[in-house]
Write a structure and sequence with these properties.
By secondary structure, the protein is an alpha/beta fold. The protein is built from 14 helices and 10 strands. The chain has helices at about 10-15, 30-40, 55-65, 85-95, 110-120, 130-140, 160-170, 185-195, 205, 215-225, 245-255, 260-265, 270-280, 305-320; strands at about 20, 45, 75-80, 100-105, 120-125, 145, 175-180, 200, 230-235, 240-245. Helix 2 (about 30-40) links the parallel strand 1 (about 20) and strand 2 (about 45). It binds flavin mononucleotide (FMN). Keywords: Flavoprotein, FMN, Monooxygenase, Oxidoreductase.
């Protein structure tokens, strides 16, 4: 299958050849996946906090550069925490390593922007509402990636799906808008472009590729799962997260919806359990992130083949889309 060429303000701004981003994924977006995405012409992000220390991030960036000479970025997820990671040190490594694009997520990135901007690093801020996207634009980010309710991870608390969120954001913003959440194929990409987005971000779809470092059992679980097989945990805590439906996530939902508190689920949601899922392949061991897009995922392709396929499908949809219109004379 020969992929068509594509150009728009997203590809021009970020120096890539397809309007596709591999979003930062904790424990998943490491050198082999992000380098494969870069080699295939899309924009991949390493997860900064997947690396235990800023020095480890420096080494992971070097490892990625051994695998590709194409551009790639780093995701910096800024979450409120009792013992926050040394964000400023991770930021300093990103700048020192000469990374040219960062994906920020979580809290408002305003306090980091002057440093990135002074170093010529472009910032794509990931958020879940038009109002947060407007704040990010006002703070000076270069683009926003907007996660709809369908997404893996944190969809926010508004429950607005991409079908409304994307055109609403495209109408309100001047900077490029990237559609995130629920995208897995060329139909989705064309839909996003039609709704006013400049590109798509995919997480779950990239987690289920040959180069993704998660255990084969996790990939097979995604292929077998349907669009209904996710749970929304932490709703009561106003920190909603979309994760795989399994015995652990269903128990967490049950405990919290019956008046339990975070302390009652703390052990169930521990990060070490989730890591065990990805590393050892026991998909019932803990909480692990996946999105509704798994209902569209039926294989475990190599990244380059996936991207070629998505672009070819999008071109087919584009060609077919106009065929129903009749021009009256
Ligand atoms: C396993 C996994 C881990 C993720 N970890 C992060 C993260 O650490 N930071 C972040 O900003 N987004 C994270 N995400 C969200 C993705 O970057 C992306 O926004 C999301 O997956 C888009 O929805 P989709 O999965 O439907 O494509 C994660 C997603 C997955 C599947």
């Amino acid at each position: 299958m020969r992929a068509p060429t594509f150009r728009n303000r997203f590809t021009e701004t970020f120096g890539v050849s397809v309007p596709i981003i591999q979003g930062g994924m904790q424990w998943v977006s490491r050198a082999p996946l992000t380098a494969a995405v870069a080699e295939a012409g899309a924009l991949g992000f390493l997860g900064a906090l997947t690396q235990p220390t800023p020095d480890d991030l420096m080494r992971e960036i070097a490892r990625t550069r051994e695998l590709t000479d194409q551009p790639f970025g780093v995701n910096l997820t800024i979450l409120p925490s009792i013992n926050p990671p040394p964000y400023d040190e991770y930021r300093a490594v990103i700048i020192e390593a000469g990374i040219t694009v960062v994906e920020t997520a979580g809290s408002n990135p305003a306090s980091h922007l002057q440093f990135f901007s002074a170093a010529g690093v472009k910032v794509i801020h990931k958020c879940t509402s038009v109002r947060h996207a407007l704040s990010a634009q006002a703070a000076g980010v270069d683009a926003v990636s907007i996660d709809g309710f369908e997404c893996a991870g944190h969809p926010g608390e508004d429950d607005v799906t991409g079908l409304v969120l994307l055109p609403a954001a495209a109408d309100a913003l001047d900077i490029p808008v990237i559609a995130s959440g629920g995208f897995a194929d060329g139909r989705g990409l064309m839909a996003a472009l039609s709704l006013g987005a400049d590109a798509v971000t995919m997480g779950t779809r990239f987690m289920c590729t040959a180069e993704s470092p998660v255990h084969e059992n996790v990939k097979r679980a995604i292929v077998e799962a349907g669009e209904r097989d996710t749970e929304l945990i932490f709703r009561e805590l106003r920190n909603t997260a979309r994760v795989a439906s399994n015995g652990v996530s269903r128990r967490v939902v049950d405990i919290l919806s019956n008046g339990g508190e975070f302390a009652d689920v703390k052990d169930l949601v521990a990060g070490v359990r989730g890591r065990k899922v990805f590393e050892e392949g026991d998909v019932e061991a803990g909480i692990w992130t996946t999105g509704m897009a798994q209902g569209l995922i039926r294989d475990i392709p190599r990244v380059a083949d996936l991207i070629d396929r998505i672009m070819a499908e999008a071109a087919d949809v584009h060609a077919a889309a106009g065929s129903g219109f009749a021009v009256s004379v």
